[in-house]
Specification:
It is a multi-pass membrane protein. By secondary structure, the chain is mainly α. The chain has one domain: Amino acid/polyamine transporter I. It contains 18 helices and no strands. The longest helix is centred in the last third of the chain and has 46 residues. 43% of the residues are buried. About 7% of the residues have low confidence.
Length: 496
């Protein structure tokens, strides 16, 4: 019995020692994992840890593996969002753009402008994915990407990162709130022109029509996730194709011969074409939110990829509408080709109403851009108390501001085209080129520094679009102001 007891005691002692050894090993792992000084006291143990740690450090950080998106978008949903962001009221201005370029110049210019806009989006997203690896962050917004590109760029520009981020943030918010105002004016004007044709005795002003959009827009903008906006974008995309079909029907009826139109317009008019196309095509503010919320973000770039598929469709539609719209209406083409459609035909009027509904559905997607920045600001609060109430209130306030500004200035298009030309040529072309150059300055600018030369050309093009767009807008505002002054003095003389 004593022999068995000794054997039993030995087993208990061995089990106890083994457990103590394991416990001590675990304590070493927990307490000394980050301490190099204490790990050196255990040479054998340090060797195994250092090998494992080195292996982990050699594996590059993959931001896609660390993204935790609550409501991820599918690849198809992302294409739908990009199409809706780029296919707006701007496409209806393409015939007027072709008027300033000519058929040949306009066709080539549309392809080049589309390629440049696609490329700037590509380099922005690519840079964002690269700086996410450097910063070890799963995703970044447009402004965060710009800040990180400077922060992880050459030493001389690192201190400017936060300043650049603020500039991009505020520019983006102002640009898209301006777009929202234009959308309200477009909706109100479309309904007024259509209903006035069938109710000539109606005395409702355009301000009233703008005010009537308030409640529907407030309700639509309470949707907070891009995933839930996919059905609205899909409906809008279907309707906009219906509008295009109706518009093209009238465009192709009794189409005049091409020789009656200018092939190449005067060079002095080309900047007007460029600023119109860039303003119409750019959806730079929606790009990063769409890419960040994709279920498979690696499918955004590449061939075919979400970006390339979307932009091929966009460029094709812009070219077709612009080319044949100018062929049909010539120098008489208006800012929106729908305004050239017959006013006494039901199908033509329905196109105008459907386009107003498309813009209404697009409002929420454009609204997402400034709200994305505001939401980031709200996350800095120490408490989440009343967050839902604050979110609802802010959304109501922004919509109300856009409706109020549109109602107060129903001819807002000239002011917004001035702001839009400045912000979209800067945000869509200049900033991506600068960010790409800064980030790769001391890394790799390619053979013969082709990245630097390429981005310099993009910067020059953006400045031309900026100056020309601002110049035309200012001229238009001056002319309109003079016209209003003349009408006011004429009415005063009549009353006397």
């Amino acid at each position: 019995m004593r022999g068995k007891r000794f054997k039993m005691d030995d087993k208990i002692r061995l089990i106890t020692n083994d457990r103590m050894a394991k416990s001590e090993k675990n304590n070493i792992d927990l307490n000394n994992f980050s301490s190099t000084a204490e790990l050196t006291a255990h040479p054998g143990f340090q060797s195994s840890i250092s090998i494992i740690s080195k292996g982990k450090e050699d594996k590059p950080y993959n931001p896609f593996e660390h993204r935790m998106v609550e409501h991820p978008n599918t690849t198809i949903g992302s294409i739908v969002h990009l199409l809706k962001a780029c296919l707006g009221s701007g496409i209806l201005a393409m015939p007027a753009a072709f008027k300033n370029a000519g058929l040949v110049t306009g066709s080539i210019g549309t392809l080049l402008a589309g390629f440049i806009c696609t490329h700037t989006v590509h380099i922005l997203v690519k840079t964002s994915q690269e700086v996410c690896v450097d910063a070890k962050k799963p995703s970044m917004s447009f402004a965060e990407t710009c800040e990180a590109a400077f922060t992880y760029g050459p030493k001389g520009v690192r201190k400017w990162g936060h300043f650049v981020k603020n500039v991009v943030d505020y520019s983006m918010v102002l640009a898209y709130i301006s777009v929202l105002c234009v959308y309200v004016v477009f909706i109100g004007s479309s309904f007024k022109e259509t209903l006035d044709a069938y109710m000539p005795d109606s005395e409702l002003s355009i301000q009233t029509y703008c005010a009537l959009t308030l409640v529907p827009l407030v309700l639509l903008c309470q949707i907070r996730n891009l995933k839930y906006l996919v059905p609205f974008s899909a409906i809008a995309n279907v309707l906009i194709f219906v509008v295009f079909a109706i518009t093209l029907y009238y465009v192709f009826v009794d189409l005049p011969p091409l020789k009656e139109r200018e092939m190449v317009a005067e060079v002095t008019q080309w900047p007007l074409f460029l600023s119109t196309v860039v303003f119409a095509m750019e959806g730079i503010g929606v790009v990063m939110p769409v890419e960040n919320e994709m279920a498979k973000p690696q499918q955004f770039l590449g061939c075919p990829g979400v970006l390339n598929i979307s932009m091929v469709i966009v460029i094709s539609l812009y070219g077709i509408v612009g080319f044949f719209g100018y062929v049909q209406f010539g120098d008489q083409v208006k800012g929106s080709v729908t305004l050239n459609l017959p006013q006494d035909e039901l199908m033509a009027q329905s196109a105008k109403i459907l386009m107003a509904f498309v813009i209404y559905l697009s409002y929420a997607l454009q609204f997402y851009v400034p709200m994305e920045w505001i939401t980031r600001m709200l996350k800095k609060r120490e408490s989440d108390r009343y967050e839902n109430v604050i979110q609802i209130s802010i959304r109501i306030v922004i919509v109300t501001i856009s409706v109020a500004v549109a109602a107060a200035f129903p001819n807002l298009e000239l002011v917004i085209s001035f702001v839009g030309a400045i912000f979209f040529s800067t945000l869509g072309l200049l900033i991506p080129a600068v960010v790409d150059t800064v980030y790769h300055w001391d890394k790799d600018l390619g053979k013969y520094n082709y990245v630097l030369w390429k981005n310099t050309m993009i910067g020059i093009i953006s400045l031309v679009a900026l100056v020309s767009g601002a110049y035309v807008s200012i001229l238009g505002m001056v002319e309109e102001f003079g016209h209003q002054e003349l009408e006011g003095s004429h009415s005063n003389v009549t009353s006397l």
